[in-house]
Amino acid sequence: MKKSLYKFSILAVIFVVALGGCFDARSSSTKNYFNLAQLSQESNIVPIAVIGSGPAGLMAGIYGARGGKPTYLFEGNKPGGLLMDTSEVENWPGEISIKGPEIIEKMRAQAQRQKVQFIEDTIERVDFSHWPFKLYTENGVTITALSVIIATGATPKRLGVPGEDQYWGSGVTSCAVCDAAFFENEKVVVVGGGDSAVEEAIQLSPYASEITILVRKEAMRASQAMQDKLKAYDKVSIIYNVDIEKIVGDDTTVTGVSLVNSKTGERSLYPTAGVFLAVGHNPNSEVFKPYIATNQAGYIQVEGRSQETSVHGVFAAGDVHDYLFRQAGSSAGFGIDAGLGAQRFLDDIGITPSLLAQLSPRFYGEKTDDAASFRSVPAQEVHTIHNVTELEALTNAGGVVILDFWAEDCSSCKQMLPIFDAVAKQYEGRALFAKIDTDEAADVVEKLYIQKVPTLVVYKDGGLVARFGNVMSRKELTAFVEQFLS
Ligand code: NDP
Known about the structure:
The structure is a single chain. By secondary structure, the protein is of the alpha/beta class. It is built from 13 helices and 24 strands. Helix content is 30%, strand content 23%. The strands form 6 sheets. Strands 1, 2, 5, 6, 7, 8 and 19 form a 7-stranded mixed sheet that branches. The longest helix is centred in the first third of the chain and has 21 residues, at 2-22.
């Protein structure tokens, strides 16, 4: 009797310890917590929600979908991520040399073949306090996600010095792939000492007359292979131990940078027409911080090798969590692990193929059609301007005119064009909208000192009243236009 009581106690302890394991702060994975019965009341269900469309998001999507779990990929405000602004990549698996956008194009095709559903929308807010998780999109949809993979990447840092905001888009930029052509025969500087700085300098070399890389330390941080590449470019020189104190200009465009030598303290004014920033990146984790553990710099923390975050069922992959190497190849690898992790999580909580079949009428389907129709909004309301005469005819007519400057090589511009079309339709009769291809309308580019694409320029009653040198979401563009209509 005593022996069986002892056995029972041991079993009870094992059971409690096992259950306790499930009850850790991270998981709360009780049957009640993952209440599958309640799913029959939910709508817009997404079994695997991938947030972000760079290499990490695309690989996560491919692995999620291949595992038989319907996978929806929210593309965000910069479809394709940072690779879209990258020229030649020589360290992508299996490719001697390939352009960044081509990598993304191939991966997207692969993901589409695996039936990953691409959604042209951005996640603005999340609620991870309960399962199923809630994701709130910029287009006003509430998604019910059974698992989430965060692959939101990182955004280029700014310097934070005087003059940077004033001349952003008028000489200051962070994308040589997009903007190098505006600096034909000009002297430019690149700020930073990493691989991106080398990339920017190489990208500028067919256009600029002189390229100076400004490095704040006495050595570059870029890989030796990248530094060696620079030797073939005799237009490129490097100045070490300099900090930028200020970006100076003539109120229209940049004319120089004010430097201070960090060793000697000596100050100097370095003349330049363009400042290309390559000073690292910040992880895009703000939206998730109320629920997810991050390190001091904002990188999402993951558990061991699992890619799982501090919330059970939520995973992270790529530049948003990788503070160390941040390579496109390793991001793709992390995406694979996150996709497999999400699948395993769904299996563990009892999301079976038959349950998925039962739930399928409640999947996020109708909104996918919305996204498709958003994409196909006709463009006929938008004018096309080819020269200054056409510009003057349109702007002198009075009222509000919004101009969108774009270029064929600029991925952010192409992302902006359908948004511009959609907002133009929304404001039919209240404002005029026109697109200007910078490769075609050189006289307009010169007249308005366009040095960055995309750039939006606003005329009101014949006068230029505002310019904005960055991509905007549909919501941001709507708010931007509203301010000129009152
Ligand atoms: P990094 O973080 O590697 O480098 C940022 C650079 O900017 C550093 O040299 C840093 O200086 C400098 N910097 C930071 N703040 C300032 C400031 N306020 N003033 C002046 N300089 C500043 O970022 P990258 O974007 O270059 O690279 C990110 C990752 O992407 C890396 O892992 C890189 O290998 C990878 N990459 C790979 C490429 C390829 O393989 N083709 C191309 C581009 C990027 P300091 O060194 O003093 O800290």
